[in-house]
Design goal:
The chain is an alpha/beta fold and 270 residues long. Helix content is 33%, strand content 19%. The chain folds into 2 domains: 179 residues, Rossmann fold (3-Layer(aba) Sandwich); 60 residues, Alpha-Beta Plaits (2-Layer Sandwich). The strands form 3 sheets. Strands 2-1-3-4-5-6 form a 6-stranded parallel β-sheet, sandwiched between helices. Strands 7-10 form a two-stranded antiparallel ribbon. Strands 8-9 form a two-stranded antiparallel ribbon.
């Protein structure tokens, strides 16, 4: 089979999920092409047997670039699709939410599952989320990989599966989507670049997926109106000059997340 997969990743967790899924597909003799939702054109859906969306779960939804990819899809007559998400806490009804959007365009979503991976956010306002001990994170990854392997087997055997589709998941997911928008809008009000710490390296500018960062007089500035709060600039600024409130300057208390192994290299778009 030929799989075309649409992906968005900011800090590497979704890339890890993709690598595991792709590896199992390829090891089983199938072909996989991967398309970054930020940079791909409309032709990413061509010449395949099944489409896939692999995504981070943000407030019971998915990142704007992937929502845009779905909105831009032409209507279909039953093209098969699988969905696979990763979350730091709970997926709620994310798969069902995306499935509904695709079904309205005539796509046949045959599989929707999720895994829980280590949290990739650490800033004031999220103190209630505790960093997991290394042994617990290792067990989490082991279970996630088991889930991914099962998903690949099920998809290849044409088994249908839809995780988190119950009534309580729908109610919880709907509530979280509403609250998340308010949460992000409130948090972005204290999101900025410390001009004294910024050395003008341009890394944040190059990795921003939506062009929300400009370089003015060799200093970075964030256009909050464009920002989707993916936290790439926050996590990967080598000077920790991108802040979410002044307290986040304490990188010992609020460590930046740079992938599961601490060495993830984010995609550059410009």
């Amino acid at each position: 089979m030929k799989f075309n997969i649409n992906i968005f990743t900011s800090t590497g967790n979704t890339k890890w999920t993709l690598d595991k899924l792709r590896g199992y597909f390829v090891d089983s003799g199938h072909k996989v092409r991967v398309f970054d939702s930020v940079a791909c054109g409309d032709d990413w859906v061509e010449d395949c047997d099944m489409l896939g969306f692999i995504y981070p779960i943000w407030g019971s939804s998915i990142p704007k670039p992937q929502l845009d990819s779905i909105d831009q899809l032409a209507d279909s007559e039953g093209q098969k699709v699988f969905l696979f998400g990763n979350a730091g806490m709970d997926a709620w009804d994310t798969g069902s939410f995306i499935r509904k959007k695709l079904k309205a365009k005539g796509y046949d979503v045959v599989y929707a599952a999720n895994v829980i991976l280590p949290m990739n956010s650490s800033f004031p306002g999220l103190q209630f989320i505790k960093k997991r001990a290394p042994e617990k994170s290792a067990l989490m990854l082991e279970y996630a990989e088991h889930t991914i392997k099962k998903a690949v087997t099920d998809i290849l055997e044409e088994k249908r599966y839809f995780e988190c589709k119950g009534f309580l998941n729908r109610i919880g997911g709907t509530f979280i989507r509403m609250v998340y928008k308010l949460f992000v809008n409130a948090f972005k009000k204290t999101y900025y670049v410390d001009q004294e710490k910024c050395n003008g390296c341009g890394i944040c500018y190059s990795i921003c997926p939506v062009g929300a960062i400009s370089m003015n007089d060799s200093k970075a500035a964030i256009d909050i109106g464009k920002c989707i709060f993916c936290l790439k600039c926050y996590n990967f600024c080598p000077q920790t000059a991108v802040l979410k409130g002044k307290r986040s300057a304490d990188s010992d208390k609020y460590p930046r997340y740079r992938g599961l192994d601490g060495n993830y290299k984010p995609t550059k778009y410009r």
